[in-house]
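WARN retry 2 of 3 for item q-0093 after timeout on previous attempt; input resubmitted unchanged.
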Amino acid sequence: MRRFFSSVRARATLGASLVVAVALVAAGAAVLLSLRANLTDQANGQAESTARSVASRLAANEPYSDLDLDDEERPVQIVDGKERLVAATEDLESISGTGVDAVKPRPGSTPPKSDGEDDGETEAPEPGEVSDDPPKVTSGTATVDGETADYRFAAVEVSVEDKGDFTVYAGASLAAQQSAVSTALTSMLIGFPLLLAVIALVTWLVTRRALRPVDAIRSEMAAITASEDLARRVPEPDTHDEIARLATTTNETLAALQSSVERQRRFVADASHELRSPIASLRTQLEVGVAHPELLDVDGAVEDTVRLQELAADLLLLARLDAGEKPGGGHVDLAALAREELSQRTRDHVDVRMDLKSVEVTGSRSQLARVLGNLVNNAQRHARSHVTVTTRPEGAWAVLEVSDDGNGVPEGERDRIFERFVRLDDARTRDDGGAGLGLAIARDVAARHGGTLTVREAPGGGALFELRVPAATR
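OK item q-0093 returned
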């Protein structure tokens, strides 16, 4: 059972059925209450109409025999001011709800006399008056000619000249109301479950059809996981809905994952190749030194060791950057950083010029120093005579520029040079260049600091590398 309800299809069907069931119960209750109220109002109107009709004729001094009280569906009682029954429907056997339980007039009650009847007076009696007040309506039961039913009773007061006050009780049967409500309730009890079953079935089928692409995506993802083939893609349904967008996003994620894995594999292969060269050279020199100590090239061994150390440091920094290392929250003055880093460099044939304006950024001093060092190393490697380092504020940005007067970077290669282990054929070699990680590290550090690193042509020729990072706010 738990496994069944763990299905989205089952939960959707159950949820839809519950919502519809609640709605049907509420709607059915509202319909039944409205139907009952309307039929009750109709019965009230019928009872009031009968009571006023009898009261009008009673006010006209008609005798009881002419009042026509024998309607079995609308029993009538006429009660005088002393709560004595003076007239009632002939077949009335019992009654409740009118306040007077009597069904037969008491002996000695005197009915009002009709017009022309001799009572010793010369003038005919004046007609009575029927009250215009809304009648009092009550619920009760009555047995007429052996059949008991529920009724609504309306009480209308009438005043007859010289005879006193009377109250006419007339009832209207609720049998029609009860029959209609019972029929509607029976229809609902039969129809609602059938409707719920239809809705549940339709929801189940529609949900299964809608989730079929999801199951196909799941199956393909399971196959990709089992085969470890990231070149495979999940099917994309031609529905342009959320599931289609899910499939598209999944394929984009797979493509990004495949690219990342391939890049990682290339990185490992390139790193292994780069490490193999200095290690092999160092091993060769040491083996020669063991066999022939007088031939040991100590300077070459030191250079290979330094190169190996620098490469290991670059690989370690790239690994930390790929792992999402935070740059830190310290304030760094780019101008002061540039002065300090450049003052520690040994003089060579390339002159380093400085145009430094103080501007602070938030980040890692060591990582920013690595960016500056890598850019200056790259510029000195390609410059003819001089390298220029500039720092300045520019709006919300801090800008560091390193330019040289060399041959520059071809426009088609300006994005490629920031890839790892990339060397331009006409610019660098393993012997005088490096491993091809300096610019890649510089761009990754810039991105970690919320900035960018780009290259363009310098105003005087050569290449100009521009680092932009958000300036620190005080």
